[in-house]
Design a protein that fits this description.
single chain, alpha/beta, nine-stranded mixed sheet, four-stranded parallel sheet, 26 strands, globular
Length: 511
């Protein structure tokens, strides 16, 4: 017997079944109705069960963007499983840890990765299926072959608000990566808050150019649109030309700052092209005030900047109605509480720098199999310690001023220096290294390594060669600087702030 499935049933409660869910541009435009999406999720949910996935099992996915992948996420929720998306740039060496830690019942990969990942799946006793990128707007692979013969109908597995719907890995500056456990209501409550705040309705058409292995593209874009019964212009990846081309037929765009920088570099972006757009949203990395200003001058629109993280989805946003302040991430979402505290958890005065903490229905259930780490990150009154240094004025406007954990955000993707440093330090000829993020005009921050040699062997080429198959490309240093010694304080800690200052102008244009 089926029962209420908290997330799935609510996502499909509002849309008209015959309304458009997504349009996939191409030589032949593919149109997917909500009825089609529900049927596809039903076939995939039946397929998951047939492949041995039980309620609570993890379904790990490293596959290219497609409508079928969105349906697989929904099918996993419907079958009571826990969806685990992985960045398509991760190497087999990186995903080996995620597989061994999460112990998924099923691993779904792009056909090109099947041969390399099959031994990893076999080692943990997981099933393996393939899901390819869109060809003519439709994804193929062994998973879809299985689903083709499955029924459209599926008796949803009962799942309550606190049951897990997804798990996303977020690395730390030290130690191993952590699986952030997100519940059905973590995702649903955030979708409703954003829908209402940003005034999404069934009339909205969102240009979806984001990847869907990430909170922004998978949850914020899809769930918010579905909660409103709106539709997507579903692009396989971000590229300025198709995004600008889609604007006259769209009302909304969600992106990272690098998207807006790239769009500003295209002369086809004009005020006339953007005239019918209702809202532009930016997140996943800080946006320069200059970008805000240029966008407003070019298009007549003011970008809505918001703030979130893997563990909480979205926390704050500039308002839809009223003033939008460049350089800030706005006010707490409805139902969410934020505060700025000192190291002891005591709120600081308005305008003072402290650690941003957040509490609300959006905050995750903890780290997978890490109860001690989970306990460390929460205050006794339930506030989650974000690790972001911030200020908050007397009216509640939040400004992120830095990151306590040396996190680098490049092109909207997180890079944790310790992971990169550990691998560089293993290379012959390297005594030690420090990895930092420095300003970059396109990526926001660039990954840079500062290295102390122990011999003659270390070089930029050798370091990149050693990292090529062990780290995703976005984590690899774009520059390596060799020094005699790293700057340290009296306690022996590397002074990364000093390194960032030293190399801050590396990617800035010459006067």
């Amino acid at each position: 017997m089926g029962g209420e499935n908290h997330l799935y049933d609510r996502l499909f409660a509002n849309p008209d079944p015959d309304a458009l869910f997504a349009e996939v541009p191409g030589e032949t435009v593919r149109k997917v109705l909500y009825r089609d999406l529900d049927a596809l999720a039903g076939r995939l949910a039946n397929t998951l069960v047939r492949l041995g996935v039980k309620p609570g099992d993890r379904v790990a996915v490293q596959a290219e963007k497609s409508i079928e992948l969105v349906a697989l996420y929904l099918a996993s929720a419907r079958a009571g499983a826990v969806f685990l998306p992985l960045n398509t740039a991760y190497t087999p060496a990186e995903v080996e840890y995620f597989f061994s830690d999460a112990e998924p019942a099923l691993i779904v990969v792009d056909p090109a990765r099947e041969q390399k990942l099959a031994p990893l799946a076999a080692a943990i006793g997981a099933g393996l299926a393939t899901l390819g990128a869109m060809a003519d707007g439709v994804a193929t692979g062994s998973l879809m072959d299985e689903a083709a013969a499955a029924p459209d109908t599926f008796a949803s597995v009962p799942r309550g608000p606190d049951d897990l719907a997804a798990m996303l890995y977020t690395s730390g500056t030290t130690g191993r990566s952590k699986g952030a456990m997100l519940s059905h209501d973590n995702l649903w409550s955030n979708a409703v808050a954003l829908r209402d705040l940003w005034q999404f309705t069934a009339a909205d058409r969102l240009i979806h150019a984001l990847p869907i292995f990430h909170t922004h593209g998978l949850f914020v874009a899809n769930n918010t649109t579905m909660a409103a019964g709106g539709s997507l212009i579903f692009l396989s990846r971000f590229d300025p030309e198709p995004v600008i081309e889609a604007m006259p037929n769209a009302t909304a765009l969600m992106g990272v700052p690098t998207y807006y920088t790239a769009l500003l570099g295209d002369p086809a972006l004009t005020r006339e092209r953007a005239a019918g757009m209702r809202i532009f949203v930016s997140g996943s990395a800080p946006m320069l005030v200059e970008t805000h200003t240029r966008w407003q001058e070019r298009t007549g629109h003011t970008i809505v900047e918001r703030y979130g993280m893997t563990e909480t989805t979205m926390n704050t946003s500039n308002p839809y109605d009223g003033e939008r302040r460049p350089g800030t991430v706005g006010l707490a979402l409805p139902g969410v509480s934020v505060r700025v505290c000192d190291d002891a958890g005591k709120p600081v005065s308005p305008g003072e720098i402290g650690m941003l903490e957040v509490r609300g229905p959006n905050v995750f259930k903890g780290y997978w199999r890490m109860p001690e780490k989970t306990a460390e990150e929460f205050r006794e009154d339930g506030y989650f310690i974000t690790g972001d240094l911030s200020t908050m004025d007397a009216d509640g406007w939040v400004t992120i001023v830095g990151r306590d954990k040396d996190l680098i955000i490049t092109g909207g993707l997180n890079v944790y220096p310790k992971e990169v440093e550990t691998l560089i330090d293993e290379i012959d000829g390297v005594a030690e290294s420090a990895v930092i993020g420095i300003p970059h005009p396109y990526f926001g921050e660039a990954v840079v390594a500062v290295v102390v040699r122990s011999g003659e062997g270390a070089s930029f080429a050798r370091i990149l060669g050693a990292l090529k198959d062990r780290l995703a490309r976005f984590k690899q240093p774009t520059r390596v600087f060799f020094v005699d010694a790293l700057p340290r304080n009296t306690m022996g800690k590397v002074q990364k702030a000093a390194l960032r200052e030293t190399y801050a102008a590396t990617f800035q244009p010459a006067d």
